[in-house]
Amino acid sequence: xxxxxxxxxxxxxxxxxxxxxxxxxxxxxxxxxxxxxxxxxxxxxxxxxxxxxxxxxxxxxxxxxxxxxxxxxxxxxxxxxxxxxxxxxxxxxxxxxxxxxxxxxxxxxxxxxxxxxxxxxxxxxxxxxxxxxxxxxxxxxxxxxxxxxxxxxxxxxxxxxxxxxxxxxxxxxxxxxxxxxxxxxxxxxxxxxxxxxxxxxxxxxxxxxxxxxxxxxxxxxxxxxxxxxxx
Length: 231
Prior knowledge:
Layout: H1 17-55, H2 59-71, H3 75-87, H4 95-107, H5 111-123, H6 131-142, H7 147-159, H8 167-179, H9 183-195, H10 203-214, H11 219-226
Helix pairs in contact: 1-2, 2-3, 3-4, 4-5, 5-6, 6-7, 7-8, 8-9, 9-10, 10-11
C-alpha cells in the first residue's frame, strides 16, 4: 500500500514547493480514503469471520470476532452474541449479558433482537420480569413481520399477559401467522372457531383451519378431525 502511494517519477526536491505540497496533499487524501474504506471493510470482515465459525458451531472461535464486531456497533453481531450468552453456546449461560446485548441490538432496530428482548422481559430472564414491557417489544417486532413475535403477541392477548385479555385481538394476530403457513396458529384458530373463543362457533371455519394444520402434521388438528369434526 505504501509503495502504491509513492511519488511518481520526476516528483522530487528539485520541483517547486507548490508542486511538492500539492502531491503531498493528494497522497494524504488518498491515504485517508483508503483508511476509511479499510475501517468499513474491517467491521464486515470481523462479523463475517465470526458468523462463519458460528454456523459451524465453532463457538470458541466465533466469540472473539462477534464480541469485537458487537462492541463496534454491529447490530447482528450483538444479537448473535446475546444468543451465545442466552443459550450457553461455548460458554456458561449468562442471561444478564444476553439481555444487555439483545437490548443494544434492539435499540438499533434489529427485529430478531426486539422479539428476543420481549421474551427476556416477559420471563424475567436477565432482568426483572415486566410482561408489559415484554409485549411492547414483541409488538415492535410483530409490526415488522417477525413470525415468532406475531405468535407471542397473540399469546399475550389470549391469556392476558402484559395486557387485558382480548381473544378477538389474539385471533387477529394468529390469523396473520396462520395465513403465512404457521401450523400452530392454524390449529389455534381451529380451536377458537370450534369452541367459540373470541368468535362465534363456526364448525366450517374450524375444520378449514384444522385441515390446514393437519396437512403439516399438527397432532391437535389431526385428533379434532378424526373425532369431533369427523366428516
